[in-house]
Specification:
This protein is mostly beta strands and 80 residues long. Helix content is 0%, strand content 52%. It has a seven-stranded antiparallel β-sheet, with no helix packed on it.
Length: 80
């Protein structure tokens, strides 16, 4: 499934990215942690939920860790 990075937040010096699925699919949102810097509203990632392997939409592999899946996103939930 393809996801677009829609938001970034930091917690204890670690950067987390929130991504939204580009099609109607569950989970609609995921939280990821990546060694690369991802750009909000620009980067699109392809995520294989079974293996948790991710690539950029261009096919380049990235180090990505999917931490959480969810279907409803409330930004206030992520504010410290």
């Amino acid at each position: 499934m393809r996801y677009k990075i829609i938001d970034i937040y930091k917690k204890e010096e670690i950067t987390f990215y929130i991504a939204k699925c580009l099609k109607k699919h569950s989970p609609q949102f995921i939280i990821v942690q990546s060694a690369q810097i991802l750009c909000v509203n620009l980067d699109i990632i392809e995520v294989d939920h079974e293996s948790l392997v991710a690539t950029w939409a261009t096919g380049e592999e990235i180090a990505l860790k999917v931490l959480k899946h969810f279907d409803c996103y409330d930004k206030s939930y992520f504010i410290q």
